[in-house]
Every structure is written in C-alpha cells, then in structure tokens.
Amino acid sequence: MKRKEIMIGAGQIGRGFIGQILADAGYEVVFMDVAQALVDSINDAGGYQFYLLGEKQSRMITGVRAVNSASPEAVEEFVDASLVTTACGPNVLSKVAPLIAAGIRKRMECGNTQPLDVIACENMDGGSQLLKGYVCKTLSEAERAFCEAHVGFPNCEVSRIVVPSKDLPPLAVRVEKYMEWIVDLHAAKSDLSGIDGLTLSENVDAYVARKIFSLTGHAMLGYLGYAAGHSVIWESVYDYDIYTVVFGALKECAAAWSAKYGLPEAEFMDYCTLMLVRFADQRVSDAVTRPAREPIRKLSVHERFFGPALTAMEYGIEPKFILKGVKAVCAYDNPEDAEAVRLQEMIRTQGMRGALCSITGLPEDHPLKTGLYQSLLER
Fold first, then answer.
1. Which of 41, 57, 335, 378 is paired with 321 by a 20 to 30 Å CA distance?
2. How confident is residue 314, by pLDDT bands cut at 50, 70 and 90?
3. What pTM was estimated for this model as a whole?
C-alpha cells in the first residue's frame, strides 16, 4: 500500500524540498494550503516542474494533489496518513496546530493506531516539539494519551535554497542541488528509513544548533547588506567589510557550538564554508531582505543572535562580532517589512534598551545585556 504524506504549506519550499523528496520516495503527497487558487492549480496540473540549479532540463513531480486546509476534507486526509510535515514558517505553526489536532482526533475516532510522525520542517530550534505543544493544547486528556502513544513529533534540521525564478511557469520550482534533512531518530514513531534525502540522527540537537548558529551569518549578510545598499545576498558575501564581520561572528558561533556539543570546531567551520560558497553563487538572486525578514523574532532569546551569544558566554567566549549583528538588526529600517517597522517603533518609544528587554526577556543585570548596551551606545 502506498504511503501518504500531508505537506502543510504548498509554497516553493514545500514543493521544491520536502514534497519533492517524499514524492520521489514513493509517497502520495497531499499538499494543504489556504490559497484555493494554488490548490486548484496543483490539482489541475497533476504535478509540477522541478529544476535543479545549473540544469536546463526539468522533470515532473507527480503523484501529488492538493486540498484546501480550511475545508472539512482536510481533516479526513489525516485518517490514513503516515507522515505529516510543515513548510509554512515558524509563526504559522500555532495556526496549523488545530488542523493537526483535528486530524489526530479523527484517527482516534476511526481506531487508527498506526504510527504517525509530524515534523515541522522550519528554520528554528525545536520546531516539532513546539508544534506538539500547540497541538496538545486543543486535545482532551484521552486524546493527548492517544497522541503520546501513536504520534511522534521528531525535531529536524533542514537546509536547501529555493531559487526565485521569474522565467518559470507558476508552479515550477528551481532549487540548489545541495540539501540536508536530518530527523531525530529517537523521537520518531514510524519507520522513516529508506527515504533518499532524509537522514536519521541520534544527535539531531547538535545539527539543529549548527544550522541555527550558522544562520547568524546568513541573517547578518541580509542586515549588513541592506545597510550597505546591496540587493542580493551574493553581493554581501563579496563585500570585504561585511564578510569580515560575518566570518568573525561565525568563528564565535563555531567555538560556542563546539564547547557545548563536544564536536570539532572545524566541523562547524567546514559547514559554514560550504554555506558561504552556496550564498556566493551569483545564479541565486536571493534578496537581502529575505533572511532579514521578521527581525523581532530573530532577536528572541533562542534565535540566531542571542542563542549563540548566550551559549558563547556560558563557555567564556566573548560574542563581540555576534553583537555587531544585533546592532545591524536594530538598524534595519525596511518600510516594507511589518516587523521591521514595529521594531523601529519599539526602539523609538522604549529606547534600544527597553526594546531589547521586551524582546529577549533577559533580566536587566544579565552580563550580556550590560555589555551589549554599552557596545550599542558606543556606536
């Protein structure tokens, strides 16, 4: 019997990364999205064109269909699914949780005790467990017990660039060849082995942290590039002044990661070198505003600036270059980014100190905050 996967989020990441991997692995992929026009387009076409960067020929991803996630039919799809993934963005997880909860409830009503895994494929630490918390809030005690017994929420690390391409048909996607999808082996309930492109790991936390810490550099390329007047990320990589600051921050992140997880610092830097090579690819027109979006979220205590900075300080490493990244975030004044506008308003009304206190929740006397504010005031 063909396994079925529900992909919540039918955008380019959903189609060009996780959806493609699972369709190639023989899953029936059911995309769920609130955009009815997108749902209709996928169903009318019966698939979509898939391009690898550097290759002129595309291939069709088939065996897929789509359902409006707000429709009653969406809940029914969960009854015989063996895997649920998301590619909708960290801020949307709380909004899709009621749908997943309804699907789990429906499985319980139908007596389906087959294992189900729900994986949040987002750029964040602990995404699947966060999603589990949202889901369980809407379940009864009996339903939570059913969920604990039969539904896994393994955290994962994901990495792949989808290349914006105006020359492609509406549903087509173009992606880089490099991809990484690492899933927590111990938290999975179902058998996820044998999926080409998915790696099961006993130490997924280290790889998730590696990704989050490395994203410090990616975000800094966006913020510093925006301030320098660059349009795309590769321009930031080739800007010597920006590259020097970003590389310094990544070195601090590498030292912090190595100290916490007991893994070689060189392993982190090798990963970052590969990352910077990918970002320097001039065929990838990745706007500087994309990794810079949602600056308030990225300043939160577990995200890509304060997360590695706090870890660094825990092991006696001074995060001076990471704090240069914080400065760049606080200076991000993009009027087309709603969070950037809100951040600038917070800084105007509360001051730099008050705004960062509100966002991070760190106590006033925290050593990082003392050093950070002194650094910020000196600019």
1. 335
2. very high
3. 0.79
